[in-house]
Amino acid sequence: MKKIYRILLLALMIGVASGCTRQNNDVNNQKVQEQKEKSDDKSTEKSDSKKLYVSFYPIEYMAKEIAKDKIDVVNVMPKGATVHDWEPTAQDIKNLSDSKMLIVNGLGLEGWLEDVKSSLKNTEIVDSSTNIDKIKAEEEHEHDHDHEEHEHDHDHEEKEHGHDHEHHHHGEFDPHVWMSPKQARIQMKNVYEAIIKFDSENKDFYEKNYKELDKKFEELDKKYTEVLAPQKDKYFIVPHEAFGYLARDYEINQVPIEGINSDSEPDLNKMKELTNFAKSHKINTVFYEMGESDKIANSLAKEINAKTAGLSTIEAKTQDIEDGKDNYFSLLEKNLDAISQAK
Ligand SMILES: [Zn+2]
Fold this sequence. Notes:
Blueprint: H1 3-17, H2 30-40, E1 51-54, H3 57-67, E2 72-75, H4 90-98, E3 101-104, H5 113-116, E4 124-127, H6 151-161, H7 181-198, H8 203-228, E5 235-240, H9 244-249, E6 253-258, H10 268-280, E7 285-289, H11 295-304, E8 307-311, H12 319-322, H13 328-341
Parallel strand pairs: 1-2, 1-3, 3-4, 5-6, 7-8
Bound molecules: zinc ion.
Zinc ion binds next to loops.
C-alpha cells in the first residue's frame, strides 16, 4: 500500500469534508444533502465529537474503568491488530478528526500519529506518558531491514518520495510503559485528568472510579515488588523488547529475542548469542508472545533444554479480552505469575 498517496488522499478528503456533518454515500442524494448541511451547519453536533478516542487497548481499559457508561470510549484499533504496525484507514482518520479528544500512549508507540496530526487540528491529543521516567530506546540492530518480505516495496517508496517509511515507528524512548504497574498508575492519572477535561460535569463520578482503579494497581505494584524481590537481577528471555519498564521497576533483566518494535526476527548470530547466554545463565524458560507464533521460542528452548511459556504484551485486543475472559489487569497478573516461575 502506497502510504503517502493514501495520506494525501486523506488530507484531501478531510479538507473537502471539513465543515460538513456526516457524509452521505448516496451520490443521488448529494444535492439534498448539501442543502440540508447548509441549514444544519451550526446546529448539528457531529456524533463523533461525543466519543472519546483512545489509541490502543490498555488505554481503552483505563478510560472505560474511569468513565464507565458516561462516555463512549472508542479504541481506534480493531480487534486483533497489533500496535507496532497498525495504521489508520481514511475512515479512521475522518472519525478522529471529528472527535474532540484522542488519548495516546505516546513515546512513538503510535507511529502513524505524526503523519495524521495535521489532519487532527480540532482534536486534542493527550499523551498519557507525560511525567513518566522514560527509558531511552537503544539503537535497533543493523540487520533490522533484512528480514521484511516487502523490503523492496519500502525501498522504492523511500526513494520515490524521499520519505523514511521504516523509521516512522521508531521513537527516541521505549514506549512500553503500560507493562509496569508502577508506570501504569502514572498513565491512568493522565487518562483521568483527560477525562475530567473531556466531561467536567461528572468529575466526582470519574474521581471515585479513578481512585478505585489506582488502588487496584497500587496493590498490583506491591505484589510485583514482593514477588520479584527475591529474584532480583535475574534474566528472563522475552519475545520482544516490551518489558523494559517492568524490568527496571522491579529490578530484573529482560533478554529480548526481538527489538523494541517487534520487527527484527533474530538471525543465526543472534540465536547463537541467545543460546550461549541462556546456557551460561541456566535459563529454564523461553517466553513467547501470547497470541503469536511460538516457533522461535520453541527452537531456542530446544537448544538450551528449556520450556516455553506465554507472556502478554497487551498490545492487541484479543478475542479473550473481547469475551471478558482477560483484561489489562488480569494479564498483568498472569505476566507476574509466569515471570516469577521462570528461572
Ligand atoms: Zn511492543
